[in-house]
Amino acid sequence: MELLLLVLFLVGLAVASAVGLTADSHDSADWKPTDQGRRWQSRTC
Fold this sequence. Notes:
Region (Disordered): 24-45
Strand content: 15-25%
Number of helices: 1
């Protein structure tokens, strides 16, 4: 039963991704957020 729930969850994620309901606000390996594809720059001054 647990395996069935896991499979249904993964299928639900795959369907949501295919339909475009998921979004990733981060890119690259450093996980810095972007604003419509432009890198967000923090100001230290």
